[in-house]
Amino acid sequence: MTRYLPFNRPHLTGREFANMKAAVENLHLSGDGPFTRHCQAWLQTQVGSASALLTHSCTAALEMAALLLDLRPGDEVIMPSFTFVSTANAFVLRGATPVFVDVRADTLNLDEALIEQAVTPASRAIVAVHYAGVLCEMEAITSLTAARQLCLIEDAAQALGSRYRGRQAGSFGNLAAVSFHETKNIVSGEGGALLVNDPRFVQRAEIIREKGTDRSRFLKGEVDKYTWVDVGSSYLPSELNAAFLFAQMQEADEITRLRREVWSWYYGRFEALERADAVRRPTVPLGCEHNAHMFYLLVRDPDTRTHVLSYLNANGVNAVFHYVPLHSSAAGSRYGRVAGSMRQTDSASGRLIRLPLWVGMTQDDVDRVATLVERALQARFSA
Q1: Which of 120, 175, 173 is nearest to 145 (CA)?
Q2: N-term to C-term CA, the chain
Q3: Average of per-residue pLDDT across 108-121
Q4: Does residue 349 register a pLDDT over 70?
Q5: pLDDT by residue (tens digit) across 135-160?
Q6: Would you state the torsion angle of the CA atoms of residues 231, 235, 236, 242, taken in this order, to the nearest 10 degrees?
Q7: Based on the domain organization, do 144 and 246 belong to the same domain?
Q8: Is residue 205 part of a domain?
Q9: CATH of residue 115
Q10: For residue 373, what pLDDT is reported?
Q11: From CA 225, how far away is CA 260, in angstroms rounded?
């Protein structure tokens, strides 16, 4: 019997349960225990951030970023429409207006050439979303944010371990958010982190994360008691999540290597279809090193996408589409505005197929998926 291939299968390193048992035996299950500190130190070393704070989700990290910017109604935040709803929601919750800019046709990342025309006197920040683990054109974006005195936030939910010209994702922005959701490369079920690269935000980020109190200063012995000093919320993950996550971090390089192997099999297997103009494979620009978070195909049109997805899923391969553009959603039209054409965003959204990619997939699995795609396309265009 042919085995079912799920879209995602979380990888276990074998150390997760031992770490969680140790956390239980330490009798420290709430946030900011030893494993939380291990994870944060790993992130600071990996990315080079001034501070790294574990959160219960990447959404929480983005919300913290919005709080740190002291956003108010009337402020604007520039971002792509082709992203997850949390990218916009974090800023809408503070009363700010998301300003949607189109993506590049090649990487599906924010088109750096279109950002300038979206900037107004109300602009406060740019959110660079690194789609599929491929970084945006960060040289141009960092130059623009510096010239316009805008805050740069990296939504690196999919990109931990990726690089742009040798620098790690999450190291460019004043702030950056990463995800450890079950669908990401290294996971804790639910989880995320705020990376703080601008020293101005370090102390206040700790306060916001601790419900608006200076508890972190109390734990360091800097004050004799802690109290409410600012706005904030409970953004900490439990120590059990951190214990699980640290096991993943210890094997991060190997996890990335194995995922890149599967990604490369896919890339080679679909070369002929791309030459025949039947699909388009992911684009990784020179100077970018991706983490193999995702392998996707762009087919010719939405009807073809529907046909291929139906065929794959009917044959035991769980392939899926991706984002419905935020600008075309009910909330997006209510809370945001569009700057310019959304042609590339609308086109990619209707044509994109994400294929299964997880540690443990074999070359035979990849060949099976590719063969099914070929058959689906043949049936579609020979009918």
Answers
A1: 173
A2: 29
A3: 98
A4: yes
A5: 999 999 999 999 999 999 999 999 99
A6: -150
A7: yes
A8: yes
A9: 3.40.640.10
A10: 98
A11: 49
What is the model's pLDDT at position 4? Answer: 96
Q: How far apart, in whole angstroms, are the C-alpha atoms of residue 315 and residue 319?
A: 10
**pLDDT of 272:** 97
Contact present, 284 and 130 (Cβ < 8 Å): no
CA-derived radius of gyration, the chain: 21
Closest CA to 93 of 119, 73, 118, 123: 73
Q: Is residue 6 part of a domain?
A: no
Q: Which residues contact 39 (CB under 8 A, 6 or more apart)?
A: 52, 54, 193, 242, 245, 246, 249
| Residue 126 main-chain phi, psi, to 5 deg | -120, 135
| Residue 53 token pair | 């704070």
> Higher pLDDT residue, 216 or 56?
56
* Domain around 160: 16-250
- Sheet hosting strand 337-338, strand order edge to edge: 51-55, 192-196, 175-179, 151-155, 123-129, 76-80, 97-101, 337-338
Q: Which amino acid is present at 12?
A: L
| Nearest residue to 325 via CA among 2, 78, 80, 18 | 80
Q: What is the pLDDT of residues 195-222, one digit of tens each?
A: 999 999 999 999 999 999 998 888 888 8
Cα–Cα separations (whole angstroms), residue 134 to 62, 112, 223, 288: 19, 14, 43, 7
